[in-house]
Specification:
16 helices
């Protein structure tokens, strides 16, 4: 499968000051604006002017004193910020991350339906299960539940949410003033879900939203994550370090989607792509090295420890990464841990070298180069079966996204690889997705 004749999908992964862990220390960043709505408004409007598919907000529902000291894990709640951004944009999709481990289906269904109405059909939900003990300890638990358990719960969580979104038929609201009937109760359904994790009567107290349901995004690349996303996701955010790994993942997941009776062309696979842009390759490399000089390696080790669920804070920076437990024994982020281990082994990196590599994109593919270099790489992945588009991760948000918009987007448009104008108004339109059926009608 390739994308000849199609155009790529591009999301801006909007992450505070940038995706490099030391970006906030760089002179070109604006850390004093981190909690200022005007900063996010400007970025969202810039992304919309460039005709990007969406902006995407990740989320971690914990922080630590060390993380705060080093400027990480401080952020707005995604659906709140996206609701505000909905009022200052018209076309761009609005994707927010919400965890199935520490929420209830009814609340999440209602929040995303609200966002879909407020944005006239631009809402997307990035479904995560969370993966750290720090998050669990904010929600009455001492440690994160094991990996398979979290995905089992996530599956039921999503099934309940889908039922709630479908609990109103499209024609339910009739607004019959003469007879005093706002909605036809025969077309609104109590869902009476009674499962292992959730017992929910329904219906939702908000009608079916403009997209019928928000677009569903999933970001897990573990075995559980691949199965989950191939059954449910409209788009998959993924991280691969090499073209070959991305191509293998793309083929595997598209085949799983087909086995689940779905159309593989209707599920977009979007790897993270973290970049630094210079006028020359030498300038881009200098900018990459400059950012590494701002890193605090003690903090980087702490972040790596949290990511893999193993305490690495006392390891030597000049030695190779020590052997970690088997992936099946890792209760945190399994797929990301596997990617990090493979990267360290493949390139024979010391711990310090590994931390520098991870500093720019937390395990996502990183590249420094000219606008032409960046466009060439995106084109190669897109046309050769590794991606349907990309989750853009500027290492210094203010600077590198600006350069991407001004130099890379026109190059992609010149090559007819990216849209000149939006062809529709909803996120579903941007992703070329069909309108989903209502399960309470299609099953009759």
């Amino acid at each position: 499968m390739n994308n000849q004749g199609h155009t790529m999908h591009l999301n801006l992964f909007l992450y505070n000051q940038g995706h490099h862990e030391a970006s906030w220390r760089h002179p070109d960043s604006l850390p004093e604006k981190m909690m200022d709505f005007a900063y996010y408004k400007k970025l969202a409007q810039k992304a919309e002017k460039a005709k990007l598919d969406s902006i995407f907000l990740a989320d971690r529902i914990s922080t630590s004193l060390k993380a705060i000291e080093n400027g990480s894990l401080v952020s707005f709640e995604p659906t709140t910020l996206l609701s505000a951004l909905a009022s200052v944009t018209d076309h761009i999709g609005l994707i927010g991350t919400v965890s199935t481990s520490f929420n209830e289906p009814y609340n999440v269904a209602r929040r995303f339906s609200s966002l879909d109405f407020l944005s006239n059909g631009r809402a997307g939900w990035n479904i995560i299960t969370s993966g750290t003990d720090g998050e669990a300890q904010n929600f009455n638990l001492s440690s994160i539940p094991e990996h398979a358990f979290r995905y089992k719960k996530a599956k039921e969580f999503l099934e309940v949410t889908l039922k709630l979104w479908d609990s109103w038929e499209d024609e339910a609201v009739i607004i019959d003033r003469e007879n005093g009937i706002f909605a036809d109760s025969q077309k609104v359904h109590e869902i009476h879900h009674d499962g292992v994790f959730f017992k929910v009567r329904g219906p939702l107290n908000i009608p079916r939203s403009p997209q019928k349901r928000p677009v569903l995004i999933q970001a897990g690349t573990s075995e559980d994550g691949r199965e989950f996303s191939s059954q449910y996701a409209d788009a998959i955010f993924t991280s691969q370090q090499t073209f070959e790994d991305a191509r293998v993942f793309y083929k595997d997941v598209k085949e799983r989607i087909a086995r689940n009776g779905r159309n593989p062309n209707e599920v977009k696979i979007l790897p993270g792509f973290s970049f630094i842009i210079g006028n020359t390759e030498e300038e881009a490399k200098e900018r990459e090295e400059e950012l590494a000089q701002f890193m605090n390696f003690n903090h980087s080790l702490l972040q790596l420890s949290n990511r893999v669920g193993v305490d690495l804070t006392s390891v030597s920076l000049d030695e190779p990464l020590p052997k970690l437990p088997d992936i099946g024994e890792i209760q945190g982020h399994q797929s990301r841990t596997q990617l990090i281990v493979q990267l360290a082994q493949r390139e024979n990196l010391t711990v310090k070298q590994l931390l520098i590599r991870l500093g720019g994109g937390r395990g996502h593919y990183t590249i420094s180069g000219t606008p032409k270099n960046i466009a060439d790489e995106l084109e190669y992945w897109f046309l050769n079966g590794a991606a349907d588009g990309f989750n853009l991760m500027p290492q210094v948000m203010n600077r590198d996204f600006d350069r991407f918009v001004h130099f890379v987007i026109p190059e992609l448009q010149r090559r007819q690889l990216f849209r000149m104008e939006y062809s529709g108004n909803t996120l579903r339109d941007h992703y070329d997705l069909p309108v989903p059926m209502n399960q309470f009608i299609s099953s009759n």
